[in-house]
Amino acid sequence: MAFYPIIRKASMHTTIPLALRAIGFSRTRGFSIHAAKPVSTVVGKKNQSDDVFDRNLIRLLNSEIKCVVDSDLFTVAVDVPTGFPFKVEDNDGGRTIVLTREFEGENIRIKVDMPGKKDCTSDELEIETSIPIVVTVSKVNYDSCLQFGLRCFPDRFSIHSLSLSKSGNPKDGIKYTGSSFLKLSEHLRNALNKYLETRGLTSRVANFLIEYMMCKDTEEYLRWLRTLKKLIEY
Question: How far apart are the first and last CA of the chain?
């Protein structure tokens, strides 16, 4: 577990070619069972067709790894901005990061996931990359906390849910969850957005999270490809 800043490489507009997803494999084997003969549990050696299949799979993995390494995702450096209000906790091999800070007697915790599917609303022709995040605001010596569900877009955050939970166990929700966030009055929704903004969820933070998580998504995908290749080659 490490606290950043570090330098990571990312690109906001480059996608990873997924050659493997476009390829399907099938293996069929014929066999027969004879009641008079005991069934052997000894695994036989790979035959020639197995070796051909494995070599082809490794070749495809190497091609995919090269596509990732050669992409523009590794040409742009992304730094944690100077004066960034949160500590960033990142674990290699995980799909999430956690941001934390203390703010006027409150503990702010933000769990950030990998980029999701691209979203397009009826009011917008642009298709934007977004990432799901959960923001928990708790107070010292108070038994309840606020939990917001948001989507993070370039330059902005969008709240889609709000709930009250027991501090220390966000899954232990309070029985009455309140009205759907979208059914709240516009003035109340705006005030809640401002509430989060004053606690550090600004457009600057939104842009950093988009780039950082796109970078992490790429790094974890590359790590996964290399691990898979090692397993096949072993």
Answer: 29
Q: pTM of the entire structure?
A: 0.71
Classify residue 23 as exposed, middle or buried by CB count within 10 Å of its CB (0-12, 13-18, 19+): exposed
- Pairing between β-strand 2-4 and β-strand 87-90 as defined by DSSP bridges: antiparallel
Strand arrangement, sheet containing 106-112: 2-4, 87-90, 97-103, 106-112, 131-139, 144-153, 156-166, 169-173
- According to DSSP, residue 19 is labeled G
How confident is the model at residue 98, as a pLDDT?
97
Alpha helices in 142-185 (DSSP H): none
Distances (CA, A) of 100 to 51, 65, 87, 187: 50, 34, 5, 28
For 197, phi then psi, to 5°, come to: -60, -40
Rg (CA), the chain: 24
